[in-house]
Amino acid sequence: MVFHMLEWDHSTAETVRCKYGGPALPAGIMQKRPFIIDCDTGTDDTIAIIAALGCEEMDIVGITSVNGNVPESYTSRNNINLMEYLGYSIPVCHGAILPLLGSKTTGASANIHGKTGLGSTELPEAEHSDFDPRIAAQFIYEEAVKRNGELELLVTGPITNIAICLCEHPDLPKYIKHLYFMGGSTVGGNVNTSAEYNIWVDPEALHVVLQSGIPLTMVGLNVSNQTEMRNEEEQMIRSYGTREGDLVADLLVYMMNRNTTKSKVFRANMHDPLALASAMFPECMKYEDYFGDTECTGTYTRGHTAIDVFRRSGKEPNVRVAVEVDVEGFRDWLCERIRIAGYNGEAVRK
Amino acid sequence: MRKFVFDCDTGTDDAIAILAAFGTPDIEILGITSVNGNVTENHVSANNLDLCEYLGFDVPVTRGASMPLFSGYHNSLDMTHGTTGLGSVVLPHAQTKQFDPRIASRFLFDMAVKCEGELELFVTGPMTNIALAVIQYPEFSDLIKHIYFMGGAVWGGNVTTTAEFNIWADPEAAHIVFDSGIPMTMVGLDVTLKAIMEKEDVVKLRSCHTKAADFAADLLDFMFDRYSRGGEDVIMHDALAVASALCPECMKYTDYFVDVETTGTYTRGHTAADFRGRLDKEPNMACAMELDVPMFRKWLVERISACGKSENH
Q1: Is A271 among the catalytic positions?
Q2: For chain A, how far is it from start to end, CA to CA, in angstroms?
Q3: Amino acid B75: pLDDT
Q4: What SS3 state is found at B245?
């Protein structure tokens, strides 16, 4: 990816500082943070990936696919098609086709992400790209070990691949610096009154991850439901005149219009990009450390993220939970990431 | 004339709800039944008896279930209602008034028969007594016209992230009642957390110079003090259930199929409202989802102001 001076403030000779915060770095050195993005692409997953391509400090090691918004056969196709379409040779892996306990629950969101996961948008079929031969869990473990504890994970779908990796490699936690995930909620749900979709699809996987000791940040509906994108953002993003911008704008149009089929409200909320923001623009949210576990046994409540917000469990916190979001700041940041992603992309494709 | 039995776990806000009911003209309160909840049943029953004698409410007061049907013994957390249930307010002990000899479930059934299908219930505590009536008397459910209850929430909880206290304290009882076919209105945290009284309401009540209004003002003062010490706000959970029957226009309602989560590890007591319509079941209750706060406060102050006027003047 290309380094852009305009995002950096050379206010002193010794340090440069990202416009949106982040650590001060020695001048001239850009210490990139290695990430794997594990996703069930997905309309808003796509936007998160594109925004990640516009994060200068991020080194995307690979993209791993998981069953979720749509079956894995679609999410993995979407990921590889997206990389080829945008001109990147980032490894793309297949991943779990079923939740950890094998239960089949997908399909509930077909009216949210469309049949293939990208709404009404169609990407050209990738012709020159092959999947990485490794399955997601293997890829994640090997890349984590290679990076000696510096690898970070962004998970925007059911957390199955990470749980599988933990089952197969109990030493994974010492190699993962941090895991940021979109899922759950401190209150309410979107599948039912208590469960958010990603966790509802695979409650046991999150239960495993929450017990793993990996440093975790949860970005749930309690914040992500506030991040609706509107016509003005869509128009601004389209005005960038880039392949990335146009794709995001098309997805936003689909998301803004999908409400009309039923009375239900599925606004163009940026659930997954907000999880990216928790990693790359953490200042746009406030967080609290809580003990949390997944409800795995309820009749109506399976998949609820039981976050001990009343602090009555007496248990040590195991997850950092986003509790407030600066919506305007987040939107500005997201649009800017998409603008830079387009700028980078145009250069990559030349 | 509409006829009600008031089933409660008095309880600071239960007491205020009782005053609102007795201050409403053209309805008849046939009795007050007590249940374990905010505080233990012996405190609840004593509060109900003392309250009726102190304010001259000449209705039967019964004792009721002292334990939940199935789950462990739970009472209110962090002194929301003080040790005895009325916060710092102390009523004179009843000198002459005696408990009705019947236990709550029997009394409820007798009243239901007597009213020939016209009986309505206010339920402002755990639903144990009502469930016990449902499972002992086959005719009971058909004889109840409507239940207005404070409990549950479509969204969120106050004991856990998914459970409200009254339902959490006896999830199985609520499940039995929800499944009984009795028409119901649920007044849950979705609206009750907004039903917060203001200091000016206390001033208005004090200006009435009645025993009932002074008693209510004392309870509100306790709640203001509780809030200033970091406790629950001056929230009128239970009076709002009374309002759903007697001032229904102050809320907006949505019909849902609602069942109680009785099997979760963390979520027992969640009122699972099928808001997506995925269970393909007929709605079994109206859930209050929006509240006109000023309208409710005005109604409540008026009703309490009217309560016991004749006895005091």
Answers
A1: yes
A2: 13
A3: 77
A4: helix
Closest residue by Cα to residue B184 from B162, B151, B155, B156: B151
User: Cα(B167)–Cα(B225) distance, rounded to whole angstroms?
Assistant: 27
The answer to whether B254 and B54 are in contact (CB under 8 A) is: no
Question: Quick check: A164 and A137 in contact, CB under 8 A?
Answer: yes
Give residue limits of the domains in chain A.
34-349
ipTM metric? 0.80
Three-class SS of residue B156? coil
- Rounded to an integer, what distance in angstroms lies between the CA atom of residue B57 and that of residue B307? 10
Token representation of residue A221: 């509906």
Angle between helices B237-246 and B293-306 (to 10 degrees): 90
Residue with tokens 């479930």: B105
Non-local CB neighbours of B81 within 8 Å, separated by 6+ positions? B11, B12, B38, B39, B87
Of B54, B11, B77, residue with least CA distance to B236: B11
- Residues forming a β-bridge with B253: B288
- Is the pLDDT assigned to residue A303 strictly greater than 50? yes
CB contacts of A187 in chain B (<8 Å) are 155-156, 161
Alpha carbons B95 and A233: distance in angstroms, whole number: 72
CA distance B232 to chain A (A): 13
Tokens linked to A31 = 């210490």
Report the DSSP pairing between strands A15-18 and A8-9: antiparallel
B71 near A CB under 8 A: no
Assign B147 a pLDDT band (cuts: 50, 70, 90).
very high
Q: Which two tokens stand for residue B270?
A: 């969640």
- The CA-to-CA distance between both ends of chain B, in Å, stands at 25
Give CA–CA dist A90/A82, Å, rounded: 10
The Cα of B108 is separated from the nearest Cα of chain A by a number of Å equal to: 31
pLDDT digits (tens, 9 = 90+) for A237-295: 999 999 999 999 999 999 998 875 554 567 899 999 999 999 999 999 999 999 999 99
Shortest distance, CA B85 to any CA of chain A (angstroms): 22
> Please, what sign has the CA dihedral across residues B13, B15, B16, B22?
positive
Q: Which amino acid is at A259?
A: N
Q: Do B263 and A264 touch (CB under 8 A)?
A: no
Q: How many angstroms separate the CA atoms of B9 and B212, rounded?
A: 19
Closest-approach residue (CA) in chain B for A185: B161
Neighbouring CB atoms inside 10 A of A91's CB total 21
Tokens of B101: 């000899």
What does the radius of gyration of chain B's CA atoms come to, in whole angstroms?
18
pLDDT at A314: 94
Q: Which CATH superfamily is domain A34-349 in?
A: Ribonucleoside hydrolase-like (3.90.245.10)
- A192 CB within 8 Å of a chain B CB: yes
Q: Which domains does chain B have, with CATH numbers?
A: 2-312 (3.90.245.10)
- For residue A112, the tally of other CB atoms under 10 A from its CB is 19
How many angstroms separate the CA atoms of B93 and B89, rounded?
12
Residues in chain B: 313
* pLDDT tens profile B240-249: 999 999 999 9
CA dist A218 and A305 (Å) reads 10
